[in-house]
Structures are given as C-alpha cells and as structure tokens.
Amino acid sequence: MNLFQEKEDLTFFEFKVDQSIEYLDINEVLGEMSKYPDEREILFPPFMNLELKRMELTPDERIMRGIRNKPPYGKYLVVFKDSKISPTVLTEKIRDELTELRKMILDPSSIENAKAVWEQVRRNNYNVKNIDNIKYYLEWKKNLQLYIRKCYSVIKWEIMSFKGRECMFRNELKDQISNANKKREMYENRVQWIFGTEIFFGVLAGIFLAFNAIEYHPERFKIMAICALGIVAFQAGISKVFSLTDKLHQRTSIFLQYDELRMKWEFEKVKDPERLNEYIQRMLDISILDNELCKQYTENRINNMHKWEKNMEEKSEWKK
Fold this sequence. Notes:
Layout: E1 11-17, E2 24-25, H1 26-30, E3 42-43, E4 48-55, H2 59-62, E5 74-83, H3 92-105, H4 108-123, H5 131-159, H6 162-213, H7 218-241, H8 244-266, H9 273-319
Parallel strand pairs: 1-5
Antiparallel strand pairs: 2-3, 4-5
C-alpha cells in the first residue's frame, strides 16, 4: 500500500526541537474525542525561527512514489530555534491596542475584501485594476499578524510556568557567560601580545646595552638600545591608555561571577520561584556592575589621554 499515492511531489521532513520550546500534543488535549488516536499531531507556536537543511534520502525513501509514479522531491531537516515572540504582561496599553486591532480585523468590508482577493489568488486571476483592493488586503493581513503576535505574547506570559522562566534564566545566563568569556579571551590575547612584545624588545635592548658596555660599536648599539626601550615604553603607554589590564581584570571577574552563579544554581537544593527571582536579580546585578565598570574605564581612558596630551604640550613648550 502506498500511503502517498494522492501526493504528487513527495517531500520528507525530519524535525529537531529543543526541549525548551513549547508545543501542544493534540491527542493529549482531545483525548477520546480525537478522530486519529494513532497519529501524534504536534502543534508548535507561531513565529518560530527555523533552519532548513537538505538531507540525503534513505534507500527506502528513494523507492517511494507519489501520484503518476513521481519520485520524491527531496528531504529536509527542520531545526526549531528560539521563538520570535517575547512574553508580555497584559497592560492597559496592550489591551487597548488589541481592542483596536480586533475592530479593524473584524470590519465587515475588510473581510469581504479579503475574501475577494483570496478568490483571485485561488483562480490565479490577477487584475491590475484591483491593485487598491490588494493593498487594502495586505494592510489588513499585516494587522491580523500583529494581533496574533500580541495575543500569543500575552498568552505566553500568562501560561509561562516556573520551568519556562527557569529555562529562560538558564539560556540568558549561558549567553552572558559565553559573551563575557569571548571578551575576556580578546583582552587576554591583546595583553599577552603586548607583554610578549615588551619582553622581546626589553631583552633586545639589554643585548644592545651589553654590546655598548664592551664598546663594540658603542654609538650604534646605544641608539638601537634607546629605540628598543622606546618601543617598550610605547607599548606600555598603549596598554595604559586603553586600560587593557584593567579590562582584562574586569572581563575575568565578570566571567567568573556569571559562571559561579551558574554553578550555584546547578547545585541549589531549593529551586522555587522565590529563589529563582533571587538568582535572576543577581544576574542583573552582575550586568549592571559590568556596565558601571565599562563606564569607569571609559572615563579613565579619557583622563589618561588628556594627561598624555597635556604632557606633550608641556614638553613642546619646554623645548621652545
């Protein structure tokens, strides 16, 4: 028996879904009322971020045929990413917006216009004279999508359980740890490069001074030693002006604080909404501290640049 004999272009899909993504099992909801108890129909929320990857057909799939004995069109892996909808509390403003959108969507003239456009699409009968009706329909459709998005965002907020909030906390903390570690590694590499350069030119200057001490081309090696020491001083100046070591300390500290928070939650004995709120607040406090430190280092950088400019001006005046 060919289960796909009524289909022309067979396309097979495999789905990969993270456990954090909400879904609805139709048979669990309908129970005995389900007309297809043997099927597992799963509904996912609207406005999901999806990734589509082409896959190779298996030998069994290759021999399947659709209507008129046509071979399968292809096979794809559908990867469900995060949702485009963020939970939103139902405020008076949101309630008013939903009411206004609902009025526009249910307007009888808008619905009749939508039906007329759908009929044109069904018949593939595009008429340039109806361009205004099509624009009107597209605006109506845009309002319908916006209404659904807002409704679902409120529903998501209302039904979001402790498990959902914990999942959001875990994902956000994971992102914060990853970002903090990337910045830490960036500044660590910069500091290591400058430190390595300072050591290289410092050793080089020592060698030049040694040649100068034994009076082996003393003038030449003396100049070369001064140049090497100048490069070392220049590198040290760059490190100070850009607060590289301070930023490395900051990024390392922030990274460790986030990671410590993750470990504490992992082994927390009591995981309830109240304790979760405490951890979320700690995460926010770390983020605020990070912003304050960035502001502080920016101010220090500006002050160091002003000091350097002032020193250059004083030296210029002294030379005159």
